[in-house]
């Protein structure tokens, strides 16, 4: 018994779940549910479908490089049964899981960092562009409290004088 | 040369292997295509791993099996999905058959492409040992 990964969304497939498709060159495509199977039949690329793990990894949404992923590797050589080893593994699973969830939370925090400045910038832009929805432009001329303070910039270059038209 | 499409469009609803289903022969018995004329088990037709009676529609000029002969065959690949013992399902690209005699011994000496491990349950171990890939 082995817990497989879905070809489309990379979620785990527990025994007895899903469907597998064997191509004529003996490549096996496993799917966790009919949703993933249907998307495969529609020839969708999992890297372009937003809810898949492949998309999230590709676009930097999820943590991709971490030493904790090493533990979840597929090993084709069966391990000889050893009670101590099993016990240690069970203990390690808890620790590794804790470490990973902590690192993932940190990853999300760092991703969120630039967001505040971006929101501020967007808010300023919106205020400038669509203040007329709240106050008519004529009112704004009298009451300055709705607009941002204007910054005066000195123009060093003297304006060219208008030449009188030649008759 | 017949070019295989790696992932054919599978919008068609796949169903049982029944009378007049044309199947590919994936061994070196000499037959290329056979048409199912009787499924030996099941009311609706044959599925993955079942045995059928078929008539040879296309054959290589100097093979063991000649065109027009009535042969027995084991369905080693079926496009219709089939439940596995653990509850999941498996399906293949095409419908393919390996020709056997009445006792269940394969006529050819080679089997091409993937075959399901369920053949062991059906007592076709010989086909499994000849196969390249077991899915």
UniProtKB/TrEMBL annotation, chain A:
PROSITE patterns: RIBOSOMAL_L24E
UniProt KW keywords: Nucleus, Ribosome biogenesis
InterPro entries on file: L24e/L24_sf, Ribosomal_eL24, Ribosomal_eL24-rel_N, Ribosomal_eL24_CS, TRASH_dom
Record GO biological process: ribosomal large subunit biogenesis
Alphabetized Pfam families for the sequence: Ribosomal_L24e
Family matches, as CDD domains: Ribosomal_L24e_L24 (cd00472)
Main location: nucleus
Keyword Nucleus: yes
Subcellular location: Nucleus
A GO term from the CC aspect: nucleolus
One Gene Ontology term of the molecular function aspect: structural constituent of ribosome
Similarity remark: Belongs to the eukaryotic ribosomal protein eL24 family.
Name this polypeptide is given: TRASH domain-containing protein
TrEMBL record, chain B:
CDD domains given in the database record: Ribosomal_uL14 (cd00337)
UniProt keyword rRNA-binding present: yes
Keywords, alphabetical: Ribonucleoprotein, Ribosomal protein, RNA-binding, rRNA-binding
Keyword Phosphoprotein: no
A Pfam entry, by short name: Ribosomal_L14
GO MF annotations in UniProt: large ribosomal subunit rRNA binding; structural constituent of ribosome
SUPFAM superfamilies the record matches: Ribosomal protein L14
GO CC terms of this entry: mitochondrial large ribosomal subunit
GO biological process: translation
Entries under InterPro entries matching the protein: Ribosomal_uL14, Ribosomal_uL14_bac-type, Ribosomal_uL14_CS, Ribosomal_uL14_sf
Record-linked PROSITE patterns: RIBOSOMAL_L14 (PS00049)
PANTHER family: 50S/60S RIBOSOMAL PROTEIN L14/L23, LARGE RIBOSOMAL SUBUNIT PROTEIN UL14M
UniProt family annotation: Belongs to the universal ribosomal protein uL14 family.
Protein name as it appears in the record: 50s ribosomal protein hlp
